[in-house]
Amino acid sequence: MAFLSVSDVSIAFSARAPDVLSHVSLDIARGEYVSIIGHSGCGKSTLLNIVAGLLRATTGGVLLEDHEVDSPGPDRAVVFQNHSLLPWLTCRENVRLAVDQAFDGANGHPRRSRAERAAWVQHNLDLVRMGHAADKRPAEISGGMKQRIGIARALAMQPKVLLLDEPFGALDALTRAHLQDQVMELHARLRTTVMMITHDVDEAVLLSDRIVMMTNGPRAGIGEILDVGLARPRNRLALAQDPAFIAARARVLEFLYSRHRAPEPQAA
Amino acid sequence: MSITIAARGHLSAARPALGALWPALVRAGRALMPLLVMLVLLVGLWQLAAGRPGSALPAPTKVWADSSDLIIHPFFDHGGLDKGLGLHLFASLQRVAVGFALAAAGGIGLGLLVGTSQIAMRGLDPIFQVLRTVPPLAWLPISLAAFREAQPSAIFVIFITAVWPVIINTAVGVRAVPTDYRNVARVIRLRGAKYFLRILLPAAAPFIFTGLRIGIGLSWLAIIAAEMLIGGVGIGFFIWDAWNSSNISDIVVALLYVGLVGFILDRLVAFAGHLVTRGT
Fold first, then answer.
1. Which end of chain B, N or C, is less packed with Cβ atoms under 10 Å?
2. A137 with B279: Cβ contact below 8 A
3. Which residues of B touch A108 (CB under 8 A)?
């Protein structure tokens, strides 16, 4: 039985509109890193939001360790595209708020004492190398640092699945590469199950065990699933010349730009 | 030119403290200079326009001659209504403090209700939209009829004037809580009172303070007008009393004070908002 199982999920936002996602089924194993890639508007974020419990599927459902997902919760922590840190709290307080909730004894984890929670917050801030800026407010740090705090907040909930919604989309190329390396390192260390939405082909191939390629909406579905099959740990410099990496990349590019090209914007 | 430079150099060499202060003084001077020039120009124009014999309004020199006492001794108290401007202002400020505090508490409460509940919004918002257009002074007769006393009537007029922008801005702020913050709250399962205190209130705070700032300005507008009608100690009545005794110079001085106090009130609320909403 799969660890996380999306079975025959369809969703429409109104009764008259066509389905955004149509009959999507996907099984993810424990510890696996799966990327969902597709053009804008193909419903990949919608799929992530259904797994997160933020949206309800119209038909079909999601099982996590054989329990049905029917509402959001800290066992499926989300790293949002635009970091979504609360600007009135410091970085530490942002992580702390999530930790206080996740470890209050009623949300899946056993209750932890104040001191234990404070230490756990610090541990996670150090994990993303943000211990030094913990007491700054989000407005005082860079976009990459904000996203690291967002990742720390998600990891600190010790989720069963980490959901990344285009986590590096708003960052410049160098910061993005740096954060990708950190996420790879964290994944190797913590063995968290990850589902990541992206539209960056290199990012998908570099980070994932499997890449799920989505067809264009409406009625988007899974077009193809690619097993990346590259050994870990991976190194972006070495991989740049690796034939297996190049082949995987070509396969995804071919899917996205030849077989399922982005729909032309319709003239008004 | 060379002399001033030499003198300055000498000064800063002799007294390093003053030398370090100098750039700050220059900067403050540059910032304030346009304002000072404008003030001198306006007072000059006023003097020219009202300085002729037989002018209906007093010139600045006449205001000073007639009413410098009011400026120099703001806190004299000769009993009854014959008090310094400071005491009149203090009485008005007390009324504003009570009325505005009630408006803030009631306005934030009602705003949260209307912002969070669709039913409350449908039931109350049209009523608010109509009532908020009633001018402050139109409330005075009905509140006098209800309370039969000047003091609570004045306070009610302030409350009813200031409460609408607080309600409306609070409701808008609550409805404008970004979906991202709501989603964060849902993922970490913040609900009920915790959601209210940790997400809703801080997210709406900048809007609430916008409402409070408009409210304090309206309060100050309303109290002056209300006091003209209800009498008693207060800056509004002072102005009306001065008009009745043809002390136009006193009115001019009082107007300046009213303007300055209104400005300070606005800044105080803005400052409080800045402290509370840090960075948001």
1. N
2. yes
3. none
Residue A248: count of CB within 10 angstroms of its CB: 23
Classify residue A57: in a domain, yes or no: yes
Considering CB atoms only, which of B183, B188, B202 is closest to A98?
B188
Is A162 within the bounds of a domain?
Answer: no
Residues from chain A contacting residue B189 (CB–CB below 8 Å): 72-74, 101, 107
- Domain membership of residue A258 (yes or no) is yes
Closest chain A C-alpha to B205 CA, distance in angstroms: 10
Choose from B177, B182, B187 for mutation: most chain A CBs within 10 A. B187
In chain A the beta strands, taken as DSSP E runs, fall at 4-11, 21-28, 33-37, 59-64, 67-68, 76-79, 161-165, 193-198, 210-214, 222-227
Evaluate whether residue B65 is within a structural domain: no
Q: Can you list the residues of chain B whose pLDDT is less than 50?
A: 1-14
Indicate whether B66 belongs to any domain: no
Of B180, B202, B277, Cβ closest to residue A82:
B180
The answer to whether residues B160 and B111 belong to one domain is: yes
CA closest to B274 among chain A residues? A88
Report strand pairing: A21-28 vs A4-11: antiparallel
Q: What share of chain A is helix, strand, coil (3-state, %, to 5)?
A: 40, 20, 40
Structural domain for A21, as ranges? 1-69+191-263
Which residues of chain A neighbour B279 with C-beta distances below 8 Å?
Answer: 87-88, 137-140
Is B226:B234 a contact under the CB 8 Å cutoff?
Answer: no
Count of domains observed in chain B: 2
Give the one of B189, B203, B277 whose C-beta lies nearest to A101's C-beta: B189
> How many other C-beta atoms can be found within 10 angstroms of the C-beta atom of residue B73?
11
Residue B91 belongs to what domain range? 72-277
Q: What is the pLDDT of residues A32-44, one digit of tens each?
A: 999 999 998 888 9
My answer on whether B10 and B137 are in the same domain is no
Q: What is the ipTM of this complex?
A: 0.90
What pLDDT does residue A258 have?
87
Range of lowest pLDDT (A90-104, A175-189, B52-66, B146-160): B52-66
Examine residue B64 and state whether it is found in any structural domain, yes or no.
Answer: no
If asked whether residues B150 and B270 sit together in one domain, one would say yes
A252: CATH: 3.40.50.300
Angstroms from B184 CA to nearest CA on chain A: 7
Could B279 and A140 be called an inter-chain contact, meaning their C-beta atoms sit closer than 8 Å? yes
* Nearest neighbour of B280 by CB, restricted to A80, A88, A102: A88
pTM of the complete model: 0.81
pLDDT at B279: 57
Quote the number of domains for chain A: 1
Instruction: Say whether both B20 and B136 belong to one domain.
Output: no
Three-state DSSP state, A204: helix
Kindly indicate the confidence band of residue A162, based on its pLDDT and cuts at 50, 70 and 90: very high
